[in-house]
Write a sequence for this structure.
């Protein structure tokens, strides 16, 4: 397999995982959010990734989420689900469950918490690759995973049979673009922090964007991909500037990204928000008021 083995392209939002008051997954709210994103122009979704709080779900819940997502996405676009885990066996088990559920592909980050060498990371992906059937997007998010997929390592991973794409979410333009240059002839390259530099990434050839902001930025978070594609420079610049301001708003003033995303969705009356899983906590007090004021100042409320 390689980039030509799949047709993955365009804006594919990383969707939230909403929960009911009893802590179980709110399947209806999940489906309603997916429907809205597809109507806004999303070409697919990524479910059960970092935005989807995979690290706070049991493996049984992750597998159930794959089924929910497949049902919500049937015939509507590409479904990629997060199956990364610390061990090879867990990653393989989750990936095979995703295939059985009907996912089109999987998003796999390197093992997290323990610091690994590049050779150890490569061996992990190699061992997973030998035991799965679905195409893989490798996932670079060192801020969360500790272990980074540097451009030279992504180039090695591109030699594995099932690896067809990379989601580059380092937040570092130099690392993103070096990765693109190293592998774009072999892998589809998706820009993670499109709210920060999605427009230049698309301009220079990114196959698509995968970001959390379309959950809380109706239309704009998705058009940030389409505006540069259609050559609308003024709109693209406007959207990129707003994306940068949203990023800053959601990550300052006592706020972190995932609780802020869900709180903003609630303020806007969008399905899929609600309370995040602990150890995350719902915004309250000053951080919540600051988010509301910031959204109003940006014209989103």
């Amino acid at each position: 397999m390689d980039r030509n083995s799949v047709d993955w392209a365009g804006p594919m939002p990383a969707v939230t995982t909403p929960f009911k008051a009893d802590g179980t997954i709110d399947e209806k709210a999940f489906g309603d959010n997916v429907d809205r994103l597809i109507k806004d122009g999303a070409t697919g979704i990524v479910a059960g990734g970092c935005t989807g709080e995979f690290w706070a779900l049991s493996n049984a819940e992750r597998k159930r989420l794959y089924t929910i997502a497949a049902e919500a996405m049937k015939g509507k676009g590409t479904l990629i689900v997060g199956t990364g885990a610390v061990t090879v066996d867990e990653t393989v088990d989750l990936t095979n469950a995703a295939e059985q559920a009907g996912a089109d592909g999987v998003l796999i980050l390197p093992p997290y918490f323990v610091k690994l060498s590049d050779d150890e990371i490569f061996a992990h992906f190699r061992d997973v690759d030998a035991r799965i059937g679905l195409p893989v997007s490798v996932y670079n998010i060192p801020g969360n995973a500790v272990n980074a997929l540097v451009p030279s390592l992504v180039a090695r991973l591109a030699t594995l049979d099932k690896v067809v794409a990379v989601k580059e979410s380092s937040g570092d333009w130099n690392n993103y673009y070096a990765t693109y240059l190293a592998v774009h002839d072999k892998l589809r390259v998706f820009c993670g922090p499109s709210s920060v530099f999605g427009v230049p990434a698309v301009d220079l050839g990114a196959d698509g964007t995968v970001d959390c902001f379309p959950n809380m930025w109706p239309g704009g978070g998705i058009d940030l991909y389409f505006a540069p594609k259609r050559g609308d420079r003024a709109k693209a610049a406007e959207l990129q500037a707003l994306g940068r301001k949203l990023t800053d708003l959601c990550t300052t003033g006592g706020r972190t990204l995932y609780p802020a995303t869900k709180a903003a969705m609630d303020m806007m009356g969008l399905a899929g928000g609600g309370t995040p899983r602990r150890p995350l906590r719902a915004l309250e007090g000053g951080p919540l008021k600051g988010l509301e004021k910031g959204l109003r100042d940006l014209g989103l409320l």
